[in-house]
Amino acid sequence: MSPAKRLTTGVVASRRVVITLPAEDRRVRTVRRFTAAHLSRWGLSEPDRDSVVLVIGELAGNAARHGGTDMTVSLTLTGREICVDVVDTGASDCCRAHGDAEDEHGRGLGIVDHLASWAQFGPEGDGWRSRAGLRVTSAVGAGAAS
């Protein structure tokens, strides 16, 4: 067996992409397209892609509406879990709130909670970090089904 094969035996494949954009509502579409394109390249099924794109759209939308000047979005696929991470940075003149269930805004985090295996939200430096993990059914290099 070659040394390269020995080193990779038992290692779970991991893939990561990052994009930084102005934290603006009109950039959320770009984030969704960026996400869908990479998830397709990584071999995620259409239902998995749709769930991840919906979650990342909600998190990026919150960053655009309530965040600072920039947002950095990252996707990390490790095995059969994808972590989506949105960090907004810079000054914000809005406070963060989950919103009332009867309010037309504020339902996005409920969608995230429903689709994600886990979610974390909180301040980070001069901004805010929103993270969520989703279990996926298929991905290139994800290994055998568990």
Number of domains: 1
Mean of all residue-level pLDDT scores = 82
Give the low-pLDDT segments.
2-7, 95-104, 141-146
State the end-to-end distance: 27 Å
- Beta percentage is 25-35%
Distinct helical segment count: 4
Adjacency order of strands in the biggest sheet: 1-2-3-5-4
**CATH class annotation:** Alpha Beta
C-alpha Rg (nearest Å): 17 Å
Q: Percent range for helical residues?
A: 25-40%
For the largest beta-sheet, the strand count, sense and barrel status come to: 5 strands, antiparallel
Overall body shape: globular
CATH superfamily: Histidine kinase-like ATPase, C-terminal domain
Domain Histidine kinase/HSP90-like ATPase: 21-125
Organism: Streptomyces chengmaiensis
Protein name: ATP-binding protein
InterPro entries: Anti-sigma-factor_SerPK, HATPase_C_sf, HATPase_dom
